[in-house]
## 1
Amino acid sequence: MGRQALPPREEDKRDSGLLYYFTGPDKVWPRALELQIQETDVGDLWILEGSRISTKIETEGYPMYVLSGPLRTQSRGRIIKFGDFEDRDGWNTVEAVLDGDRITHLVNGRAVMRAWTSSRHLWTTRPSTSRSPAAASCSRRKAPRSGSATSK
């Protein structure tokens, strides 16, 4: 995600995301989970179209992931990451580690979200029995700010 912003989003945060565990018909927002890659919100979890996860959140009215507490089940909306490890001026490494029913979001090597899901809520057909973790990652570099680039 570069610095350029075009109408009508010139003033909006730069925004991207990584969808995983998606099923169902091919459409813009399928039944899936999303690792949010949006400026200042990198690592948040979005639950789309009836997917269901369990995680530890502060309160139901303020769904922020916490390290300890009771598991709560969510089937819609956003769960806010724990901590802010995003580098707003340089490279960021963002990973979704999917291991069986366990989900972990990492931002620059730090776990900011952990959740659990039941395969019956994800797949319409029987999933592979492989227990090897899958991981997806991406990096981004912000463009230099105006006037900060060096020239000869």
## 2
Amino acid sequence: MCGIFGLVSTKTRAGFSVSEMKSLHDLMVMNSLRGEDATGYSLFNNKNEFYSGKHTIPGWDMVKTSEWDFINTEGVRAGLAFIGHNRKKTIGDNKVENAHPFIVDNRYIFFHNGTLTNWKDLTKNLLNKESIEVDSEALAGVVTPCNGDITALSEVFYNVYGAYACVWFDTLDLKLYVVRNSDRSLWFTKTSFGYAFASELGMLSSALGRNNIKITDPQEFKPKHLYTLDISTIGSEFIEEKIPEKKAGPPIGGATLHHMKNMDVDNDYKEVSKNRYKSIRKKYVGSTLSFWINDFEELEPEADQKTCMDWLILGESDNVKMNHTIKGILHGISMDDLLYKWDGALLKGIVSNLDYNKAEKRVEFTVTAIHKTASSVLCVSSNLH
């Protein structure tokens, strides 16, 4: 789990106020609760300059450095936009090269929160590179060249498997872009100076509120929508565009996975009624459900030296046609085994509980006794999708 936050001034080009920079200081510290392995940032000023840095220290140490003193001074003098990131490593070692932001083509400054499951395929087949150590760098390499074109982004995200909330600068066109899927949250609010955003609304409200910055109409960025903001023009606002829906295909690579579907379940994404919920619960609790992993998170991230770890996994089933999430715990699995043996395999588990998230109109299954099926690859093809 990582965290993203930032401020954008759209009402003036005179620089951030002292209160606004204090709120960034507070967000840097608060956001470290989402990731303390590394910290990165990028500041854009009214001279069309970008200052970016990243270090393998938590945010609460970052704000004590002379580098942050400079950013604070520069922000008050001329700051127009700032993006910060706190990393909790999941894939790749904790070193500066793997921290955010990632600079692409000396033009794009990219930040990502989430975990991808097919990032090595993206690296090899879309970037034509042999090796990239972290999933976020692979995502940066395929997303940023789209230059904000939603058709191109639709093609890219068709091949992306996993969770993502992304924010990036285009330093040539002076644009800020935001896109996420439903697996990672990202909130924004209007303010007296422009916009503020963060992975968690509570942190955002607290950091702004303690510095007497009033928030207006806080909301989540919509999943699978591209938000574009011209950071060079006073009075600019986010432009929201829905990324064209394209049914997700199998991960690119040498194999095509054909998921057989059970068509006897209603395709219903509307709010689930109380009676409908009772019927679903009666049908599924105690039954065996097959599913695929969408995302995972280490349950004991402090235990860096452990070869085998416990993982919270999140997934979806081809046999459930309503909006849903499946969650469970895998015990004593190494990262390599999770990535190359479990992720991408068809799993089965016994449904032990079922809840309904009314806000997101999503049924949430809890499964136990998780195991791999005898065969999850039903057909092999050399076609790339």
## 3
Amino acid sequence: MPSKKPAKKAQAKRSAPEKRVGMARPGGGRTRGDDGEYGARADKATGELAVVEKIASLKGAVRDVAAKLHDVVMEAAPDLEPAVKWGMPVYSRKGPVCYAAPYDAYVRFGFYDRTGLDGLDAGDGKGGSIKLASVEDLDEARVAKWVRTAAKR
């Protein structure tokens, strides 16, 4: 009786890494536009209009807080470039400076580098950011000072 050899597993052919770059991935990554070409990620849009549209899509007090934060940031540092990245407003100048992350009941406003930003501590283990549930929680002068300091870097 001939001896049986174990069957070889069929190996899936993989494309070279350079061919995989830019391929559409389910649930994220780059997507195809109407023209069939790969374009920007759906959760990333640049410009003030994109940020204003994102803020307008929010509900209730979160929308009011995000809108007020946007006004304060743009007034304090008009040279920052607003964009929607990672599903939230992000303000950049030679790299990301600050963000306004909307949640159901509050907005977390924070900085990517909190060096030199005195008094910035949420008190809930999220150093470098503050939690704002209403417009009344927003100290405009203090936030404007932080934004000006961070934007100089």
## 4
Amino acid sequence: MATDLMPRPTEKTPHRQPVRDFFRRWRSWAHAHPVTRWVYKTIIGLIGLVVVVVGLILVPLPGPGWLVVFIGIAILGTEFPAAHRLNVFIKRQLQRFWLWWRARNTPEARSTRAAAARAKRES
């Protein structure tokens, strides 16, 4: 039984990732048994919920509140499709924001905004 959970190199990945391989095999073993699947989903749900609640408590405080919330959603997304869809949506929105921010902060855009601000002050 313990040898089934030991990490083995896979042919899909060129580099060994023993921790990831271990958790993938353990997760597939847990999903193969109905009782362990239920226990596993419950534990992941509780851990993810605790991380999200702690993150929400940290939001008004200085620190990584929203980051902790997103990590909690990612934990929940490993087992729950709705949380996974929310995680994908958040990633997509952050990517759009980042592209907008980068386009807005090019040297040409900054000089255009500076020129517009000077023109406004002069008028």
